[in-house]
Specification:
The chain is α/β, with parallel strands linked by helices. Helix content is 35%, strand content 16%. It folds into two domains: 144 residues, ATPase, nucleotide binding domain (Nucleotidyltransferase, domain 5), CATH 3.30.420.40; 184 residues, 2-Layer Sandwich (Nucleotidyltransferase, domain 5). It contains eight helices and eleven strands. The strands form three sheets. It has a five-stranded mixed beta sheet with strand order 3-2-1-4-7. Helix 4 crosses helix 5 and helix 6 packs across helix 7. It is globular, with a radius of gyration of 21 Å.
Length: 340
């Protein structure tokens, strides 16, 4: 089939610093590599629309087609939204809030647009790159916060009635600080899973640990850097089998698995995919074992192994395959499914 007769579908993943984009055809095959342009979300949605159009132009150029051959767009944003309407500012400029971004960009681009949040987009990406997976899939990704998404067996994202489902980082877990207090979460509450499993949580933990006498001679105490940078460095220390780093990540992994057990009890996804930066570390399999320890502590046995076939796992855990491109891929595949 000539390129002029084919249909194409774009996935646009809006992040805080870059917009990642990709193009697939009517057979859901990638026809371009990931294209990145600068994100201007803090400058307003109209400035971002300019960047989205730039990305579409670059995709079309790479594929040797015209922008008019793009029949549908999948768009994700790093904020809560319902059918395209932004509910909260998050890291966006204030003019995003209350706007129907899906409708406005669809009118500007002249093609239909499907829109969701970034956690859902990555979940869809992980579902579609697993071409032989036909069940449901839960995606969880420790990053600055703790993102999540649930894909149903037919490849449909579970959004909830208001587009606010799967805020996995904000379930409560029964763990307290050494002084008996619940850790403060960035959402404004205390005791959330995200307050233990996120980059923000690592900052708190490393600060508390480095103040103890037992770690006064730790190399991180000699580093003249803010705690944010030390938290980033912790992963490198863990890859070198540093005792403090291992201790912190082991605690995080165990609590992560413990919290996931309750989510699995509610949704029974069958497959849990873990994304985020930890998916690329050399100690990720050890980390996964810590997650499984917490999961097995809290989960009922039937959510681990089948009572009928003892060798059959009822819940499988896998590392993400899509990397940084999962969101863009998920949105491109979703656009193909909805508009193809």
């Amino acid at each position: 089939m000539a390129s002029s007769e084919r249909s194409y579908f774009a996935g646009l993943d809006i992040g805080g610093t870059t917009i990642k984009s990709v193009l697939v055809d009517e057979k859901a095959e990638k026809v371009t590599d990931i294209v990145e342009v600068r994100s201007l979300v803090d400058k307003g949605y109209l400035s971002t629309f300019d960047q989205l159009e730039e990305a579409l132009g670059l995709l079309a150029k790479d594929a040797g087609i015209t922008v008019q051959q793009i029949r549908g767009i999948g768009l994700d944003v790093p904020a809560a939204n319902s059918d395209g309407v932004i509910w909260g500012k998050a890291n966006l400029a204030s003019d995003w809030v209350g706007k129907n971004i899906r409708q406005l960009f669809s009118e500007r681009a002249g093609v239909p647009v499907y829109m969701t949040n970034d956690g859902n987009a990555a979940a869809l990406g992980e579902y579609f790159v697993r071409r032989k997976h036909f069940g449901s899939l839960m995606y969880v990704a420790p990053g600055t916060g703790l993102a999540g998404g649930l894909v149903m067996p037919a490849g449909e994202i579970y959004n909830g009635s208001n587009g606010l489902a799967l805020e996995v980082g904000h379930i409560s877990v029964p763990f307290r600080e050494e002084d008996g207090e619940l850790p403060f979460c960035s959402c404004g509450w205390h005791g959330c899973l995200e307050a233990w499993v996120s980059l923000v949580a690592l900052r708190r933990r490393i600060k508390l640990e480095l103040e103890k006498d037992v770690w006064k001679d730790h190399p991180l105490n000699a580093v003249d850097a803010p705690i944010e940078e030390k938290a980033f460095m912790l992963r490198d220390f863990a890859e070198s089998n540093d005792e403090l780093a291992i201790q912190i990540f082991k605690q995080q992994g165990y609590i992560f698995g413990y919290g996931l057990a309750d989510l699995i009890r509610v949704f029974d996804p069958g497959l849990v995919v873990i994304g985020g930066g930890l998916a690329e570390t050399s100690f990720r399999e050890t980390y996964l074992q810590w997650v499984l320890e917490g999961f097995e502590e809290r989960a009922w046995p039937i959510y681990h192994r089948s009572p009928i076939e003892q060798d059959t796992f009822t819940t499988r855990f896998e590392w993400a395959l899509g990397g940084d491109s999962a969101g863009a891929l998920g949105m491109a595949f979703a656009a193909k499914e909805k508009f193809g």
